[in-house]
Predict the 3D structure of the following.
Amino acid sequence: MSRIGKKSIEIPAGVKVAINGQSVELQGPKGKDKLTVHSKVKVSYAEADKAITVALAPGLSTDDADANAQWGTTRALIRNMVEGVTKGYEKTMQVVGTGWTASVMGKNLKLTVGFANSITMPIPEGLTVVVEKQAGEATPIKVSGVNRQLVGQFASAMRAKRKPEPYNGKGVKYAEEVIKRKQGKQFGA
């Protein structure tokens, strides 16, 4: 039995819930998000309690390990959706390196990170990318949106374009990330 899946999800004021078969759609002040749930899980919304409950589909027992996994995962995904449409998600990235910059050009993010050509990344629908004014040697980039997975995936894809290296710390990194530095070669005696 899933301990996470048994808990109901409180719906704050201002969030609209629409459940249509295996599709759950939430709309709140920050935007809207949609999720198609697994067939082994049943989602229901109680208007009086202002709560969403997730349960196993009829005919399935708690002995089915896959059904239990889907049960807990679905509950966690819907909880993330509720937080996304009310507060939103945000990741702050930094481009570290002398002369290395980032800029938003229309629906694309342009990274100039030491290669011969600049890297252009299309910004997915539903995300907002803001490049703030360069502060010192690091250029801060804020990635925000309603969908937690989409925000994290785009931030991870940005980091993968030029991972921070351990000698000088140059590269694209998360703002809270600490780069473990290595000592360079020693010359002379």
